[in-house]
Amino acid sequence: MLFGPKGSEELSVSLCGVCGRHAELFELPGRTEKYCLECSADVATSILLTTEIDAATLAGRATENLVAEFAQLSARLLERSQST
Fold first, then answer.
1. What is the largest CA-CA distance in the chain?
2. What is the pLDDT of residue 22?
3. Which terminus of the chain faces fewer neighbouring Cβ atoms within 10 Å, N or C?
4. Mean of the pLDDT values across residues 41-59?
5. Domain count of the chain?
6. In-domain check, residue 14
7. Domain limits for position 78
8. Is residue 22 part of a domain?
């Protein structure tokens, strides 16, 4: 069990950087916020999708499917962040 500052009896609260839920949090490389398992998976996927969209654009390949997937993922993250 974690406690706050010395002499305090308050519990340290861990809140997800996206949804704000109290949960076990995970760090992602290059990110300062911590996320619950569900949100960390979605944030990591969004990072990968952004990289793939950029690479496909630079290579002159079609990006419609990747952009559509990114839009769905973004909507899910937004919905989750607004539900708390």
1. 61
2. 93
3. N
4. 97
5. 1
6. no
7. 37-82
8. no
